User: Which sequence fits this backbone?
């Protein structure tokens, strides 16, 4: 059983897409093992996005992620990391296929509805930050 970490970002929460995101994962046979709605603080976001610290979009990303509530989740299942990333679609919504969360709902690189871990190591690190 593989575990991955997912965030429904502020734009997804604001637009009422929590149920849609969760149902897509569950229809694929994945299980929501843990979840919580919260307003992220600066310290937690800085730990989470540490690899982006020197990038030009970092401050905008932190500010955006603090603008409203998020849903943090641990998702479990066989091949959970790959399945979740396939369901989410490419990070750039202009390249994301129709039928994916980002392809169907996202408009910009920053406001792209969801975040998910890209490896088992990232999943373990991110889960430990948020749960």
Assistant:
């Amino acid at each position: 059983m593989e575990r991955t970490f997912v965030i429904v970002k502020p734009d997804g929460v604001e637009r009422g897409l929590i149920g849609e995101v969760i149902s897509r994962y569950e229809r694929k046979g994945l299980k929501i093992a843990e979840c919580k709605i919260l307003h992220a603080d600066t310290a937690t976001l800085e730990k989470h996005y540490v690899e982006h610290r020197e990038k030009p979009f970092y401050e905008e990303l932190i500010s955006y992620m603090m603008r409203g509530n998020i849903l943090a989740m641990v998702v479990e299942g066989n091949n959970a990391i790959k399945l979740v990333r396939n369901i989410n679609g490419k990070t750039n919504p202009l390249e994301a296929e129709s039928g994916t969360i980002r392809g169907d709902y996202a408009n910009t690189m920053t406001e792209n509805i969801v975040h998910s871990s890209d490896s088992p190591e990232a999943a373990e690190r991110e889960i430990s930050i948020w749960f």
